[in-house]
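Escalated from tier 1: adenosine monophosphate holo job.
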Amino acid sequence: MSVEQILGGKGRDVVTIGPDRTLADAAQCLAERRIGAVVVVDGSGGVQGIISERDVVRAVAEAGASALQAPVSSRMTSKVVTCLPTSSIDEIMGLMTTGKFRHVPVLDGGRLAGIISIGDVVKQRLAEVESEHRALRDYIATA
Ligand code: AMP
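Tier 2 regenerated the structure:
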């Protein structure tokens, strides 16, 4: 199973934010869209970073509520780990486990083409396990 197949089911929309917006804007965006991370892009859509709910919480814990007025660029992770539409789900699980993050943007020809969250990976794996169980039960019933 590849990233492309997951995107075919969930869609390719990616919620983005500019680096000069505030952490308050990012928090509002995360809450409104009910997501855990936003990809930070420049004016031409190039990926500059990623900011997740953890970055916002850490900023407030370290600097208090005034941190919410800081720019997204001050708290985002600039070195974004990305994948390709052809990447496998096993590869994504490996990236998330090693990097300890729950979101992986998908790049196609250098352009944003979707995002895979840990929730998408878990959903996919559950569907695969259920399908294997069904096949085994059918096999046993007809043997
Ligand atoms: P998350 O688990 O996705 O909420 O993110 C945990 C931390 O990893 C935060 O500091 C994020 O900015 C960072 N992060 C999230 N996704 C990625 C990614 N794909 N590449 C690099 N860092 C990331």
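The radius of gyration is 18 Å.
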